[in-house]
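Hi U.,

Before I forget, here's the chain from the pilot set. I'm dumping it here mostly so it's searchable later in email.
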Amino acid sequence: MQRLAIDLDERSYEILIGLDLRKQVGEFLKAVFRPSRVVIITHPSINSIYGEEVIANCLDQGWTTDIIEVPEGEVSKSLGQVEKLYDRLLELNCDRKSVLIALGGGVIGDLVGFVAATYQRGITFIQVPTTLLSQVDSSVGGKTGVNHPKGKNMIGAFYQPRLVVTDLQTLKTLPIKEYRAGLAEIVKYGVISDASFFEFLEKNYKDILNLNYDCLSYIIENSCAIKAKVVEKDERETHHRMILNFGHTLGHAIESLTGYSRFIHGEAVAIGMVRAAELSHSMGKCSKEVPRRLEALLKNLGLPVEMPELDPTAVIESLYHDKKTMDNKIKFILVKEIGSIEIVEQVPESEILKII
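Structure:
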């Protein structure tokens, strides 16, 4: 088992990475907190595979443990679903020493984190991410929230988990589409921070697609380490942490304008990264080789790279609702070369229209 520390003073915690760790969640939790009761929140499909194992280990610690199922899909990241969870927690008489366990992917992690941040002004929660996307991105860093019809993750809070338990074994039951979507975020880390890591992905993409555990352990730990350094430097995204949004500016617009149903998050980010690299080249920030290499790697990993047919005016309007947009200026994360990026405070609409 690998241990990776996130250093945030009193909000510090560890990410545990290894095989079959889901069966020890209760033991890991007991080492950092003694709950009055435990509530596991998950999707029905995940509950049917892993719920019993996680519950059993919590019961072994002597804790009253309940499970709540949330419908599948991005549509569950809503204030309506949050209210339903509040109702259920109140029915279970959960208090400030209760612990929520987010067992699932990014939707569950974001939703449960937001509920934990706001229920009785904040209770403890831990992340048990079961998708590649959540293991390398959404479970790390404390961003929680729900969607609004006008934008993704527009309602939320910065609220750190007490622990992250990453079980590589859960990736074996992950649909290939979901697995590939997670690879988009891993590629992002290479682009924004580590050229040698990007090269590793280029050379080893076949082993990665075949779920070689040595490769998986390396790319997940490396991705989390890169994100950890960024979060430690700028926990609340005042500036530097925005580099983690490379590809997300257009990616979120694509998700929103297609009703969160045509593309899953990583697919939209893959398209957004290619367009951001094209925009970087168009604005003279990088060579043509950068978007070419990025597009080639994403294609090799089975990810979409072509911009869907969307109303350009609607895309621009959506970008103005992006959380990075301030003073009516569209902000973009652009790439200078693989491993080096730049936060551009204002990108003209005319430049964006060229690449969409």
